[in-house]
Design goal:
By secondary structure, the chain is mainly alpha-helical. It is 56% helix and 9% strand. It has four helices and four strands. The strands form two sheets. Strands 1-2 form a two-stranded parallel sheet. The chain has a two-stranded antiparallel sheet with strand order 3-4. Strand 3 and strand 4 form a beta hairpin. Helix 1 runs antiparallel to helix 3 and helix 3 runs antiparallel to helix 4. It is elongated. This is Putative membrane protein insertion efficiency factor.
Length: 108
């Protein structure tokens, strides 16, 4: 029992930077993004792509994918559908608001 609780605490601490970045992106998408309107040439939008990349791959790699996408998004870009790279083994769950939790937090 103590080991399980300790593992949950460690997982939560390891996921804290990822979830803080996710929180910032959620705020950006709700507050700033609507001011610009639908201007992204890609689907999903750059902020959504970055959010999903961080959720799936973590803060460092997800931020890299998001930055690379932003560099491709310019007025002369063709645009189109740009899939998020799927990770083969994803051991977390993404909550309804978008935060990442260890799979041990699943209900049921």
């Amino acid at each position: 029992m103590v080991g399980h609780v300790l593992r949950i605490i460690v997982d939560a601490l390891l996921l804290l930077p990822r979830n803080l970045a996710i929180a910032l992106l959620i705020v950006y998408r709700r507050v700033v993004s609507p001011l610009y309107g639908d201007v992204c040439r890609y689907y999903p939008s750059c902020s959504s792509y970055t959010l999903q990349s961080i959720q799936m791959h973590g803060l460092t790699i997800g931020t890299f994918f998001g930055a690379r996408r932003l560099l491709r998004c310019h007025p002369w870009a063709e645009g189109g559908f740009d899939e998020i790279r799927v990770k083969r083994s994803f051991r977390y769950v993404v909550t309804q608001p978008g935060f990442v939790l260890p799979s041990s937090h699943r209900k049921g």
